[in-house]
Amino acid sequence: METVDSRQGYGDELAYTYFRFRGTTEEFLAFLQELSANLGTHLDSCCDYILRAEWLAGAKEPIGQLLVRLDYVPRLAEALLGVHQAVAGNAEHLTIAQRVAAASLDRD
User: Fold this and answer.
1) Which residues form the domain of 82?
2) What is the total count of domains within the chain?
3) What is the pTM of this model?
4) Could you report the per-residue pLDDT of 76-105, keeping only the tens digit for each?
């Protein structure tokens, strides 16, 4: 996974990260589905976020976008770390999408 663009957000603007996934579109969509499910188990109802795939004009592959209120960023970062630790601690049962997510967090 590779970060394409990000913005902190100010005031009422949402913070966001655009990212590219290395793999098939099907693997990317499966990754987004698993990431959303895993974040849902690590975040309580305090922190709304938007996770989506976008196909830009002329693009052959989608990019991902994660949006969140600026004051939720620390909780979301903790949740992503929790997802990473859960995935890393259970390596023998990982799906391809989970392995990609764990590898991308190790690089960051």
Assistant:
1) 2-107
2) 1
3) 0.67
4) 777 777 766 665 555 544 455 555 555 555
